[in-house]
């Protein structure tokens, strides 16, 4: 059973190092980490800690009084009578809807695309560039472009549907569930190349001997994918899932520009709301508290996802 | 979207003491001391500047088509005042309002700027802008030189923080070819509620939806507020402490807009800017839009269009307007020469604002509005006739936070998701909470 | 591949490509229209009145809008940041993936944990820190803070985990130290991952808008995104100018992508396990 051996080999790569001779000085790992940790401590950890501190205050960097309010900002998020409760949880729900709808597509479709483009055929670099092309545009351009194309009354999308005799009055950006469908579809179109190139790089990590061994064994394409490709991609897959989840849950540009949060505030995402509260209304304490509630929710979600992966080593 | 070297040692997880100090220092970096000088009893400011050479940074949001008109004025000012050099930096308005307070707080702020009138109170309360009473006093500027609502709009806590440059009201833009095709007089757009509805009926019978009702703030919220005022209502009470837009006048106003959709005078699901794009394409006859639309429509050489004051739908005449106003920013160290030079600049530009009007604005100064030169700008002058019944938001810090709830109500009603009365009542409940929180935050 | 299968294969590929290319082609066509024609309904397929208005606006000789300068600033900031990320993240990721040390799990957990904090929370504190360093209105503010994110470390660590260990072990037996293993074994094996990280980091910085708007004041220090935004109208949308700017900004990014793909494809020919 060469397949079984190959699969075991593929898995074994990320087994923890056991009893190897290591001649590494005690300081070596820290020296490798030092340059990054300097940056990390200054520009990520310190600001994040500062954000926590801000969330315990009624905080506006320009006002003299920044009264300490303890957990009041957090309490307001759980108190159904507060000014922010309803809108905050509605925005969290919007983020949830978008994340749940977009992540599976953004994880699976690019993988299929990467497998297609990993084969050797004339013009493959050209096609890679084509599928990656939308991603080189910034969200500002994507937003303006699709808002124009998806305009329910004047847009090219409904115009095309009209031309071929299909229903052409779909409210792509002003009605539900259409607005979500549009936001997810635009995001997939825009960022499919991002995960695809990550998968493509990951596929290079898998030793080709494993495939050759499997081919001699005659296992078929699906078996190869199951027993060699997937295990070999596992660490990269973990990265893609986590990163895509975080990217989707941080979505705000598409909503801001394409739907403007409409209809009502249905497509206003948590980040959009946090930015409004913090950067436009200068309620930075509230905004920081909201950020950390979102952080907590995402951490919980990822713990659940890891449980599904059941992979202690790759994470 | 990446937000993310310190020579200090940050080993492992322990943050160095240096960083802690650094963060502590960030804690109160805002210019929070009470402003002195330039207040009510200030000595008059100088009208000309004879001191040593100074350079002034002037920031605003006049991007795209507006910028060149202001740039020309700045260049002319620099030529006429060899000892003052003004450099103008431009940012998108949305970025500008986030950027300026942050820059001012770290002592990197500009000397001069422009603010929309509904941002002045907020920035005054946050200590971003300086009082300008002395300038008004020196120049003998009074209400009579401008128009009462425009002049009053820049006052917060009995101090003046801004000097009006222009007003940009909502106006009626109409497609003459479409009116003609429907058998209506392209030289006489409807000006009363009855005539307006008749025109819409005529257009509808010819298969044209004549007033696309937009559910988005640009310009749905502006149309709603104009109608609210026309029906005799108010957004908030005088002090900006209580929302009043959900009362009868508000419901009437929003119902009128919503009925345009319900009765087929407007398509459903009008997207952002679709109203004016439809007007340019002959699919829409009337568009209530800001005066800046003049420049947009001028780009279509073949388009036959006109501009007029808003029709009177309610019981009185009223229109929404915004206003660009001059402000001076707080510095870490006040420099008397720069302050004086800045005031000279504000005064000079204000006096030369006819050039600015050509960029598609109504000058705030009465003498300029009354000039033959301004009257020759047909479209601007037509929309400018509304000057005496324009309305602005109250000068309350954070008032735009409460206006966000109005945006949502207008959106939900025009998209037919909620009845107007219900949408407004829900919004008013939220707005009340926001106003109260802001009162606590900014003090009374 | 047989002939018919070849034809079917390309039909699928090209059909899919159209979905990705059509809006971009439309973007390019729009950039050659007049402002009026850009909003025609139904849209004109090819410009009826071809116009270079957009590009004239973009390249108008004006001290306020030095587009070429923005372009160079963007190139410098995005390029420098990508290099910085590659250097610091690859070293840190190697330690986290391959070396044993006290507190490793905790440290990695902390680094990954910060990925979950929304970037908006960090804007104002970072602004204040950058101000302390005297970096406001300089390219340093665009290069250094963004390199501190955990993305690159997490990304490379996952790739390093998947590398076969045999080569490292062989090098170790020959007496190579950690630095030699890292530079002579790990990095060469990771070309596809490094090239991919380079292009992703470059693009994130290249298209970043929010942070530059805070930290840059002078037009001559702008990068493309905040720069191009000031060419658009304050109250109206000038589609040709937006699309022209986007076309300008996307060309170098695509070229960079094509260059990096060489390293990714090269990776295929290397052999992982020396059986």
TrEMBL record, chain A:
GO terms for biological process: transmembrane transport. InterPro entries: ABC_transporter_permease (IPR051393), MetI-like (IPR000515), MetI-like_sf (IPR035906). The keyword Membrane applies. It comes from the Bacteria. It is found in: Cell membrane. Keywords: Cell membrane, Membrane, Sugar transport, Transmembrane, Transmembrane helix, Transport. GO terms for cellular component: plasma membrane. It is a multi-pass membrane protein. The chain crosses the membrane at residues 30-53, 97-117, 129-149, 178-201, 236-258, 289-309. The keyword Cell membrane applies. It holds the Pfam family BPD_transp_1. Residues 92-305 form the ABC transmembrane type-1 domain. Belongs to the binding-protein-dependent transport system permease family. This is Multiple sugar transport system permease protein. It comes from Actinoplanes octamycinicus.
Automatic annotation (TrEMBL), chain B:
The keyword Transport applies. GO terms for biological process: maltodextrin transmembrane transport; maltose transport. InterPro entries: SBP, TAT_signal. Residues 1-24 form the signal peptide. Keywords: Signal, Sugar transport, Transport. Belongs to the bacterial solute-binding protein 1 family. This is Multiple sugar transport system substrate-binding protein. It comes from Actinoplanes octamycinicus.
From TrEMBL, chain C:
Its main location: membrane. Residues 71-260 form the ABC transmembrane type-1 domain. This is Multiple sugar transport system permease protein. GO terms for cellular component: plasma membrane. Signal peptide: none annotated. Keywords: Cell membrane, Membrane, Sugar transport, Transmembrane, Transmembrane helix, Transport. CDD domains: TM_PBP2. It comes from the Bacteria. It is a multi-pass membrane protein. The keyword Ligase does not apply. Pfam families: BPD_transp_1. It is found in: Cell membrane. Belongs to the binding-protein-dependent transport system permease family. The lineage of its organism: Bacteria, Bacillati, Actinomycetota, Actinomycetes, Micromonosporales.
